[in-house]
Every structure is written in C-alpha cells, then in structure tokens.
Amino acid sequence: xxxxxxxxxxxxxxxxxxxxxxxxxxxxxxxxxxxxxxxxxxxxxxxxxxxxxxxxxxxxxxxxxxxxxxxxxxxxxxxxxxxxxxxxxxxxxxxxxxxxxxxxxxxxxxxxxxxxxxxxxxxxxxxxxxxxxxxxxxxxxxxxxxxxxxxxxxxxxxxxxxxxxxxxxxxxxxxxxxxxxxxxxxxxxxxxxxxxxxxxxxxxxxxxxxxxxxxxxxxxxxxxxxxxxxxxxxxxxxxxxxxxxxxxxxxxxxxxxxxxxxxxxxxxxxxxxxxxxxxxxxxxxxxxxxxxxxxxxxxxxxxxxxxxxxxxxxxxxxxxxxxxxxxxxxxxxxxxxxxxxxxxxxxxxxxxxxxxxxxxxxxxxxxxxxxxxxxxxxxxxxxxxxxxxxxxxxxxxxxxxxxxxxxxx
Length: 409
Prior knowledge:
Dna Ligase, domain 1; alpha+beta; 31% strand; six-stranded mixed sheet; 3 domains; single chain; Nucleotidyltransferase, domain 5; globular; five-stranded mixed sheet
C-alpha cells in the first residue's frame, strides 16, 4: 500500500464516497458507500443541515470498513453553469530542462486574466505545450527549452457551487485537497486512447438531472443540464399504479426492465396501492412505463448533443445510476445507436453511479503524475494502521482487487 485517496460525489439521490489505494501504478478499492441524501434538489444543495447528516453517515460507514478516519477528500461540485475556456500563456524557462513548475507557469497568467469576478476556478486541463515556438507536445517535462507556451482548458463554476460544498465539508472537519466537476470525473472513468482522437460525449443520468458533456480529444468543452432523471421514472410508476414513491422505486430497481424486449407479462409483482388494495403489476406493463421515460431522457440528451456540435461524435458513453437498470442498453440502441453504456472497471464497485467519484480520483492521480508529485491523503500512522491485520476484515470490500486502469493498462 503506497498512497490512499478519497473522493466524494454529493448527488440528489445519494452521497457516494470512495476510498482507493494506488500500489505499483494499480488502483485498488479499499471502501465505497452510497448513502441516501437529503437536502439536495436538481444537484444543488438547498438544506445544508440535512446534507451534513447524510455526509456524516457516509464517512461513518467508510470509516467502519477501514478502521481509520478519513479527513481529506477530492470533492465534486455541481456542473450547473460550468464554463470551459481555452487559456494560453508563455514563460521563460530558467533552467536547462523544462520542469512541471515551468508547465504550470506557462498558463498561470491565462488563468488570472480569464477568471471573472462571479466565477470560481475549479481546475485546468492541459491541452499541449510549445517549446521555443516550434515543437508541440503534451508533456514537455525533461526536454530542453528556453521558452514554453502552454494551452489549457480552464473549468469554472459560479462561486456558490463551490462554496456550498466546501463550507459543509469544512464544517465537518474534512479538508478538500482538490475539487472537480462531473464532466471531468466521468470522462476519466471511461476514456481510453481512442477518446483522444476525436469528439466524444458522456451522458450521466442522475436522480433529478441528466448531464450531457461534450469533449474534444478528452478535453471537456461544454456541459448541458437536463431537468429529468431516474426519479421521474419513480413518479411515473407511482402515478400509474397509485403507489407510494418508495414502492415505485423498488419496482424500478428490482422488478421492471428498462426495455420491453425481454419483459414477461406473466411475471407479476404484488403490492398494496394508496387505497390499501392489493394489486398485481405485470413486468411487461411496468417496463413499458420505465422505457417510455428513459427514451424521453435519451431523446432530450440526443437533442442537446445536436445543439452542442454539428461534427460527428465518435464515442458516446451513458452512465449514472439509472443506466444500471436491466436491459438499459436496448433503449440506447433505439435512441442513440452509436452510443454505449458505460462500465465501471474498478472491481468491487461495478456500478455506474460511482463513475464520477472514481473518475475524479483517476484525474487527480494523472495530474500528480504530470506534475511529478507524490501525495497521499493519509498520514504514515494512518497508513500503518490501515495496513495492519484486523479481526473481522472482509477482504472483498476492504482490500478490493487490482486492475491496471491507467498508467500502462
């Protein structure tokens, strides 16, 4: 065990907290939890006190698994009204070889000059660098040069998006070591070398909202928010069968299919409606309700993509908790035949609702690599305690599995 990293995604439906270890350039899952959230609507915090309680439960859950306290995280902030701006800058290289500090200095001036008073800086994604006005490369570290020009994509959001999250975590004694947005996390969770060659998109279907993000060679360029998500499916089922919303959610997650193709009209779910009358719901009918709403959401997302670009999109990935519904891929085939359902590769947490949290860790680690830095969110004492054998340890959830997701897979 070398370094440990934690990432939190504060969503309308749940708080996702993931803790991973990087060992020999492989990412291991140590712990992950998803706690129902309260006080969040359409991805924005509306009741900080309720959100605090949900976050505390998530941290207690993970700390019970690990046996140590987590006090530092990468925090995801809302994508709402995110801005993406290409910035440029140039600097003199004081030494014989270009360093990571020179790379940062090359576009630092561009960050300052392009940041508006009502905006908060979230992150910057390097695009490329030009050495001595000639040679262009993505990572010039270690190469000789006297002048370095850098291009990067600066991501900003309204200040309230950042401060609403930061103030809650800081009040709980949690230090934020980095912030990110969903468009960054999702692309880093799913991308491969092919994504760096053209235009791609990620559609994240959450509980209250669906986020449509467009990328050029894996660099985020635009994000649109659609006011519809998985909770609308719950409401449709509740209205159709006159049942409470929690029962509707159970039907969506455990009984209905996303598409009617494989639905069985003889497979029946028995429950009580609001009039306390026993009813029987067949799978085919329930799946038709689910499919109708999913198709609507995917159609809205497709329209947003058409508005964002008139260029062909090579790769479209669908993620988010709602994409876990069985047979979801058939809806994708009907509405967006060139798209694919995402598949989180981290063994032990194969669920698309974690894509943002996991992707933000991957992005953070790749940023550290570019800067030539080592960092861990745990102290040496915490690392020693975490590595020590403990009783009643569940190897499947505590130690996770190893996979070469990046740095050479």
